[in-house]
Structure formats: structure tokens, C-alpha cells
Amino acid sequence: MLCIYNAIIVNEGSRFVGSVLVEGEIIRKVIAGEGRPAEQCDEWLDAQGCYLIPGVIDDHVHFRDPGLTHKADMATETAAAAAGGVTSFMDMPNCNPQTTTLEALDNKFADAATKCVVNYSFYFGATNNNADMLSQLDKTHVCGVKLFMGASTGNMLVDRMDALRKIFSGAGMLIAVHCEDQQVIRRNTERIREQYGDDPDIRFHPVIRSEEACYQSSSLAVQLAKETGARLHILHVSTARELELFEDKPLSEKRISAEACVSHLCFCDEDYATLGARIKCNPSIKTSADRDALRKALSTNLIDVIATDHAPHLLSEKQGGALKAVSGMPSLQFSLVSMFELVREGVFTVEQLVQKMCHAPAELFQIKNRGYIRPGYQADLVLVNPDKEWVLTSDCIQSKCGWSPMEGRHFHAKVEKTFVNGALVYTDGKVDRSHRGQALTFDR
User: Fold this and answer.
1) What is the pLDDT of residues 286-318, one digit of tens each?
2) Cα(193)–Cα(198) distance, integer angstroms
3) Which residue from 146, 212, 353, 408 has the least number of CB within 10 angstroms?
4) pTM (2 decimals)?
């Protein structure tokens, strides 16, 4: 049995010094108080000065596996996850082949069992033509249905109203939606091209993929959810205006929830001048007022979950402007420490961080025995030193693409150790790539 003692345990809205006992894969006991508890243990870990939190659950990643593995794969990206304190992930379907058939979904789960350092699940991708398959999904292992109400990488756009109504009515589980109105984007593209040529400067990306595009699409998704009673989760909210669509009440009382991503919380359109296409993503990075409104919402229940939309590309693919550079950026490994910077700035508390990154994803997706530090739960745990300044350099990056838009930033918190199902998979800057995570199970 392992005892992690003298830790500052952050869990379920409280913070206290104590110990956590881990036996095999399971948390056996949580004990308040300083020093070694009077327990019989084989291993002792003194966590003096460090936060001990549940493993981060990221409900929104693109690991590019299968088919796009020149830029990322399950092995490299789950190593990045472990190094960043992320112990479970949910991967999107816009790979190659797209995860839009039961066979492709089964193949992805089988592949993950041989590659993933951390725990995993996968979305099933909705299309204009596959709504009849939704009833055949195993709700105890499939995290949700992904719906693109806006074209992005891989172009899985669903744009027929009859198909949308069928998906919203028949999903039978959470529908995670990318919301950008394609007609608005098309009009904006034509106008900007006429003025500035075939590949306008990157600063026009948020003009093309505008606030209006996001709001119109999100409004339609909310309307369809209310009409059908669907369980809707709107991904990567990027505008202050969209916050009007959500309610400030506990997640347990909602049928419509919202996600904010690290990219939209850390960057604004002023950053295009220095970072260029490195921060090009869909939906686009918008104004500082939008960023600040999203940050403010973190201390309320308007935003339920913080995720990454981790979407690696090679830097060679990020060349060009608003139309030619590909959209997406890697962010998984440094998401937790980036949010600790917001805690340091007083944007929200460490208890609220744990709620948005650990507890809420577990509650939202009804994940069995994860997301909390509780006896009987899987020992997915992260030790974070909140007072260890360091600079992000390329040599510490685990993602296959080898770069980060955060390079050069100073951080004041550092992930020291990550445990997945009781196993120490990250410590001293190294990932145990031989470890294998488990498929997530959902209580539905």
C-alpha cells in the first residue's frame, strides 16, 4: 500500500492537509491531518507543499490516430497527457477513417488498449446519413456523439435540418457540438477575399470565423436541444455573447452545458501579431473582452468544463494566413499549469479549477469511479507543486508535433507526479510509456 502524506488535498470544494492511501488501483482511505498516519504501508511519499488533486479529465482532444499519425498518435499524446496531469481523455472522430461507423469505433478502442498511457474513450461522429446507428452505440463505453454544426479539420459538417433533428432526437446520450454557422463563414470569406486576396493575413481569421458565426450556430443548437430534450454540450465557447445562452446553476440541474478551452482562456486576437498561425484554431481566438468574459465565467456555473481541444499539426502545416494555415494547436501537456496561472492571477480558485477540470467532466459524462478523491475510486491522482517557477522550452514537449504556442512562457506551478489507476506514470520529467490505461466506463 502507498501512502501519499502531508499533501494539500483539493477535492469536492475543500482544501486540507492530509494523506491518501492507495492499494493497487484503488483509493482506500483519505485521512485529514499532518504527518504520517498510523497505517501499515509499503511505500511512503512525502508531498509537503504540493497540491494533491484528482487526475484531470479532458473531454475534448484530437489525437490524429488513425490516419494522421505523422503529426500525433495515441502513444505520444497520452504521454503528453500524463506529463500534464491528464489521466483520462475523450477523443474526437475526425481522423482517417472517420469514426462514423461501428467498425471504426471498435478499431479505435482496440488500438487504444495497446497504445494509451492514460484512460480513454471515444466519440462517435454524427453525419448527415448515419443517425440510424446511434441506437446501437454502447452507452457504457462510448462517451458521446460528436456533431459538427460547422466545418473544421476533416470536414464532418452536418448541415441538413432533417439530419440535425434526427440526431438530436435519437442520440440517447450527450451530444457534443462544434458550433459555427457555415453560411456566415462563407459570406465573411468571400468579402475578405475580395478585399485582401486568396490568403488574407492571419489577423482576419476571427473576422471570417466571427462572433456572429458562433452565436447563430450555438443558438440553433440550444433551440434544437430544448425542442427535443437532448442532452447538449456546446464545445469550445469562444465569445462573451454565447454565455447568454447558458444558465448559472449547478451542472446536476442542466440539460445544456458549456465547455471553455485553454486556448480561448489564454490568448486573444492581440496575440496573432506575435504568434501568428500557431494560435489559429476553430472557433477562432477572439477579442480580449471575449477572453476576459470567459475567464470571469469560470468562477460561476455558466462554464461547466475546461478542456483543451488539443489538436496537433506540424509547424510546416501551420504556414500561411487565415485560409491556408491549418487550424488547431497542441495544448494538452500544459493545460493544467496554464490554469494554475489563472488561479495565481485570482481569476478563480484552485477548488474551482478542480471542479472544472476533474469533477465536472466526471459528473457530466457519468464516468464511473473517477474524477474525485474518494475511497473506492480509481487512484487517478496528480501532485502539483504550486510554487516552482520554470520556463517552457521545446525539450520538455512530449507531443509528436514538437512545439507549443506556450513556449517561452514562465509558469509558477509544475506537475510533479501523475498516477493512473494507482501506477506512477510520470515523475522527474519522464513518462512510463509501458503503462496502459483503461477504457472509461459510464454509469448510464
Assistant:
1) 999 999 999 999 999 999 999 999 999 999 999
2) 5
3) 408
4) 0.98
